[in-house]
Amino acid sequence: MTKNAPLVVVAAQVLVTVLALPAISGCTAELDEGGDHDHEHPVDMVAGRNAGHTQQGLARAGRWQPSADVLAAGDAQQVGYNPAPSWDDGANCSGGATDGALTLRDHLLGYFPQIASVGIYNCRVIAGTNSMSLHGVGRALDIMIPTVGGDADNDLGDPIAAWLIENAAAIGMQTIIWDHSIWRVTYDPRIHEYTGSNPHVDHLHVEINVAAGNENQPWFDAPFGPAACAALTGGESVIDNGDDCLRVYGPGQYWRDESVGYGGDLLWTNAFEAGAPSNWAEWSLPFEAPGTYEVAAYVEPSFGVHRQARYQVRAGGQDHVVTIDQGAASGWAVLGTYDFTGAAGEGVKVFDNTSGPVASEQHIVVDALRVRPPSAPPPPEEPPPEEPPPEEPPPEEPPPGEPPTEEPPTEEPPTEEPPPGQGPVDEGPVDDDDPGTITPQTRLEPSVNGAGCSAAPPGASFAVLLAAIARRRRKLA
After folding, report:
1. In this structure, are strands 256-258 and 266-270 parallel, antiparallel, or unpaired?
2. End-to-end distance of the chain based on CA atoms, in angstroms?
3. 237-372 architecture in CATH?
4. Res 306 pLDDT > 90
5. Does the predicted model carry a pTM greater than 0.70?
6. Which one of 42, 305, 306, 463 counts the least CB within 10 Å of its CB?
7. Within 13 Å, how many C-alpha atoms sit on residue 168's CB side?
């Protein structure tokens, strides 16, 4: 299945009218200057956090076209333009990067993690000319962005170019060349198609003026970057769509906005079969300190459909891939518990591509993301305290003037007397002369009378007497 066609009509971007180059006053020489297509990259490249990573963004058809808002902000920037000195066989090369270019480079690498590397100095001419490149005096920067199939990665490069345009006056930014387009403060209009032999799809070539090279522009007094999401200080945090910590990528016509979901708003796109994503989103998680957190994504059941929504959790220097059945989810779907270190680049991504066939209308919801410390197990239940036995009620007191009630005396059982003429019987030791003639009998424990005496059971004395007489007769026989 191919990516579904948009369901809504997207307003076309305002296109800037491109004037014929000869009609631009002084443009011919400046265009040659701006045609610095950098076949030889600077010799002092410094790697960024994206160095060696695979493609992460998306290319768009056509050349770089900033939004109308960015172009309007750029038109308001007043920046002095300073070309490079004459080449003179390299005699005018500065020998290294300017302080301003180094400062700007370091901050760009910190602000934009998608940058693979930045290079500044290279003593050379603009290819095909005898004019010195601004790299030769250390006032040009090559901001390297990996391509997507040989095309410019607009999702990663366009935000950098837009920020530089919007802050050109503060920085001293005079030229930007990126993805077949050139923006320069001396042009009218300031942006038009770039026709140099190198289309600049793998890097932005940017130039600063002399004041910026000497760090005499306002930005260098208090460097600032693009708006970034606030640091996560611990406890529970929820990042909703529309927050600074969530960015969405890919063609805008494939993102749909609905007035439901967490906070009353969500985005969705359709899943499709492909080896690389078309539309995807990233929640950044800038934890202030290391910690263990449970991660969960919010899924609105009326729009969450795709059974194999693929998430990638970056934590502790590792990528963890989690597949969620959004069609079976409702509310918070837990992605797992992970150990975060607080390092740059930690976060969660969700992609729209899958390796197998996909049915139609397999929506993938992008809404809120929740992080919180894992729940502690509940404490063991303590047994309820034993209730004390009920107290015996106190004896009732007789009414005043009445004598206490006397309990009747307990009658002692009468003492059994032996039959007349028969005294107490002493059983004595067992006769062992003829043990085979002794019949075992069950011993009956005597009962105890009230006087503490033992009383034989009725008839016992008479039976003992007869046994004794019988023994005596045997002995006399």
Report:
1. antiparallel
2. 124
3. Sandwich (2.60)
4. yes
5. no
6. 463
7. 28
